[in-house]
Amino acid sequence: MAKKIIIVEDDVDIQNLLSVALKNANFLPYIFSNGEDVLQQFNIVQPDLVLLDAQLPGIDGFEVCAEIRKFSNVPIIFVSCLADGSDIIRGLELGGDDYVTKPFDLFELIARIHSNIRRSPVYVNETINHKHVDSETLSIENFRFHVHSGKVNINDTVLMLPTKEFQILFFLAQHPEQIFHPSELYRLIWGEDSIGQTQAIKVHISNLRKKLESISGHNAKILNIRGFGYQLLFHQNDHV
Question: Where do the domains of the chain lie, and which CATH numbers do they carry?
Answer without folding.
Answer: 4-117 (3.40.50.2300), 131-233 (1.10.10.10)
